[in-house]
Amino acid sequence: MGMFLFLIGILGIVGSIVWLVIGLFKRSGKKKAATLLVASIVVMIVGSLNVDSPDNENTASANTTEQSSSEATTEETDNSEKESSEAKENQEAASEEFEGLTSDDSYPYASDVNVETKDNGDIRFVELVVHADWYDFDDDEKNNYISLLKTVASEFMDEDGSLPFMQVKSANEIVARSEMTDSQNVKILD
After folding, report:
1. What is the pLDDT of residue 84?
2. What is the pTM assigned to this prediction?
């Protein structure tokens, strides 16, 4: 707000000086221009006094008590522990589901499943890791592994019934992933 008043004051000063110069040649309107000049100077001064300088911010932050600093640190630690425990719980749930589905060797090339969790606890993506060359699979095998991914990802379905973003990774390369407009559809990349 202070910067805004300061800028308005400067614009008013420039405008009133131009008006005064024009008024000198026309011999009229000098009183209004002088009044505008004085008002603009006052607005500029008030604005400059209200602008926060870095020194003011440093002083304000230096004056915070050690107690509020330790409370903030404790709160941040609690939040990060909560976030990491949610991420850990999500990963454990996905791994448990994955182990249950792959224990009968029906998916011999599926090696792992990863869940990336956002800071707010939402799922960023669910990733199926395949340790064979994806490009050697036929379409049925690819769709079979995508079905496995969807089944694991269904653990994290949101309130609307939408699956999280999903992807299949083979040889450190994303070979299939959800479409951006519809996360239910997994597109095989060429």
Report:
1. 75
2. 0.55
